Amino acid sequence: MNTTDLLRRTFIDFHQMEDFARDPIIMERAEGVYYWDTKGKRYFDAIGGIFVACLGHRHPRVMDAMRRQMDRMTFAPPLHAISDVALEFVDKVGQITPGRLKWVKPFSGGSEAVEAALKFVRQYFKQTGRPHKYKFVSRYYGYHGGTFGAMAASGTGTRKTKFEPHMPGFLKVPPPTYYRDRFADWDECNRFAARAFEDVIMNEDPETVAAVIVEPIGNTGGIITPTAEYFQIIRDICTRYDVLLIFDEIITGFGKTGQMFASQTFGVTPDIMTVGKGISSGAIPLAAMIAREDLGEPFLGPAEASIQFMHGHTYAGNPLACAAGIAVMDEIVENKLWERAECLGQYLRPRLEAMVEKQGVLREVRGKGVLLGVEFSRPGIGKALKHTALANGLILRVDPDWFALAPALITTEAQADELLGLIDKSLKEALVAAGPS
Fold first, then answer.
1. What is the pLDDT of residues 271-309, one digit of tens each?
2. Collapsed DSSP state (helix, strand, coil) of residue 335
3. Is 10 helix (H, G, I), strand (E, B) or coil?
4. Is 393 exposed, middle or buried (0-12, 13-18, 19+ CB in 10 A)?
5. pLDDT at position 314, please?
6. 3 state DSSP class of 403
7. CA-to-CA distance for 303 and 272, rounded, in angstroms?
8. pLDDT tens figures, 155-207
9. What's the CATH code, domain 3-59+336-434?
């Protein structure tokens, strides 16, 4: 096998392949909070692959559930039936979600779930006599997925401009971090940013706006963590103008923020939620769109009415994936692992603050639970940190001005100390590589 030739015939997400092929990382196996590459080098996985492996890699309970399901059935005919395990998955999701979020449609990835939510909303308003409500309001820096509808809802610059023009009907407001230097305190900044949604809805005409979609904690902007009041203001605005509120919890869901979902962490329940990533702890592709139960009623009727949800995917509700998801939810619920996330976050956060502040480059540490982001006061350090972290066997989410981590909920205190040591070493080396400010 000619590795270099093969690498030139594929794509790694958001990497220039010619550069990647010079010194590729090819993973061979994973266990708990670690990866090993084909050269035998071990990596501490500080972000669960990409905010996915919330129980670590190859969790025994999840592996056992998948083995049992493999002996029964691995695919059900989606145009003719639903599997028993998919129905159990729907029931299990409905037991852990807040409020009336009980209408569940499984998918095989977060982008699929977001795409489904957008289509669900538009069809819902058409079938309830309001066909002109089709616009969506989201945030700059937000990321909702790689498919065209999800990209149109995203506000991530070059990740989307290469594919323009995008679908019409998608509008943006800045996140609260955009305004933070213009206000005396973070609370007032958030109030201003939240009210921007109302400005857009009013100026676009509320009769044309269908939904607001936001990540409770924004990843691509640097773990942007608004106040609880920010979300309450948006919730009130959406209710006032008959606009549905969608929380994209693909990153924040399943225990990371100190509650099962970030909506519970911030005390605001949306009308629709999209989940993915941690729902299977990375064992197999799985996601879901979850809606308020009453929102599903306009889709019920006789066959001749043709009002069913006109959307489907071949692997949506896959039995093997649903078995993994059930095992993950059971493990989190039975052991209250959201509490572990809170404790682990309280252990890591002050140590991260002290570590980076000691180097004189800390602007802020933000996040909830184990989902934490560190922003540098000096731009560009992240470019060097990305290289030094990997050289030291550490996988982080790194941007030029910040880095993020979300270690598995099973991480021990000893492993947390190991993680902090790797970050400290990598940051010091990155500062040397970056040179004086």
1. 999 999 999 999 999 999 999 999 999 999 999 999 999
2. helix
3. coil
4. middle
5. 96
6. strand
7. 26
8. 998 888 999 999 999 999 999 999 999 999 999 999 999 999 999 999 999 99
9. 3.90.1150.10
Architecture of domain 62-335: 3-Layer(aba) Sandwich (3.40)
* Three-class SS state of 210: strand
Residue identified by tokens 């977001």 is 114
Order across the sheet with 362-368: list the strands: 362-368, 371-376, 402-405, 397-399
Strands 27-31 and 34-37: antiparallel
Does the pLDDT at position 131 exceed 90? yes
pLDDT at 4: 86
What confidence category does residue 391 fall into, taking pLDDT thresholds of 50, 70 and 90?
very high
Percentages helix, strand, coil for the chain (3-state, rounded to 5) are 45, 15, 35
Burial of 164 (0-12, 13-18, 19+ CB in 10 A): exposed
Token duo for residue 195: 């009210």
Q: Which sequence spans correspond to the domains of the chain?
A: 3-59+336-434, 62-335
A 10 A CB-CB count for 350 gives 10
pLDDT of residue 85: 98
> Cα 77–119–284 angle (5° rounding)?
45
Tokens of 413: 């205190």
Rounded Cα distance between 437 and 421, Å, is 24
Tokens read off for 73: 């059935």
